[in-house]
Amino acid sequence: MGHSDESSVPFLADLENEYTATEKSHISPLDNPRITKCSKKQTYFWISCMVIVTLLTNTATYLTTHQPLRNLDNVCAKHTSQTWSPILDNIDIEYKTVRFNGSLFTNTIYREEPSPEVDEAWHNLGMKYKAIIIPPEDAPKAGISLDHFRVDEKDGGPGYPAIVEVMHQLHCLNLLRQGLYYNSEYYHNLGEGPFKNEEYILKAHINHCLDTVRQSLMCSADTGAHPFLWAMSGDRVHLYPDFNRDHKCKNFNDIRQFAEKHQAPWREDGQLDVQPKEGEVILPAIP
């Protein structure tokens, strides 16, 4: 029998083909230089993305937790205001710690007996400031509608006159002080401001102010705590609340200065010589 080539034997040829296929199947893709280079690039890309995302996340967290306190104060002031005010955009609202004088017998000038000096101290708080003017384009975000009174250039406009809320609240508190039974005679005899009016109007005015202050206090709803102290009263010892407590207070003087600086150029008594224009809303009675 003649010698034959192994490759011509069918069985051996099948074994050789199977071996070759098995070897190829065990070749790693990483053994391919082109595939290895591409895989490394993808790995570096994803690692870089993870590093960048981590850095951005950490930076955002730091800025959020370490932003300047003043920014937080402004955010707080805007968040707790029902409507926009030019004060919020033009001064930096700051909250500062202030210890209240809650003493029963240690007076401030605001608690003294009626006098020109006491009245001047109250007036210097800004309660007699004239209105500021809200520009027409800002009126909607300030809660002002087209039905409200508007002035032209000659009266400080164009815009809508508006009283800064805290100034009205202080006016009301001062009127309550003036109307106290031990102060009212002095102011009746003086015959100025609300005390020029008839008694029923004065009473309505005082009642209006009383309820304004009530609503303001309930709206702000201070949640501070008053602890108690032992104190002598005559020859006896009593428990008495410690009203001399620290509070977080807005920078009132900056707010007052803004209201003072932006007063409308009206008469000293804050009045205008105007009449309703055609088409303006006229209410049937004082609200």
UniProtKB/TrEMBL annotation:
Q: Which UniProt keywords apply?
A: Membrane, Transmembrane, Transmembrane helix
Transmembrane ranges?
44-63
Q: Which InterPro entries match?
A: UstYa-like
Cite a single Pfam family from the UniProt record.
Answer: UstYa
One Gene Ontology BP term is: mycotoxin biosynthetic process
Instruction: Report the family membership.
Output: Belongs to the ustYa family.
Q: Which PANTHER family match?
A: TAT PATHWAY SIGNAL SEQUENCE, YALI0B05434P
Q: What is this protein called?
A: Tat pathway signal sequence
Organism in which the protein naturally occurs: Botryotinia calthae
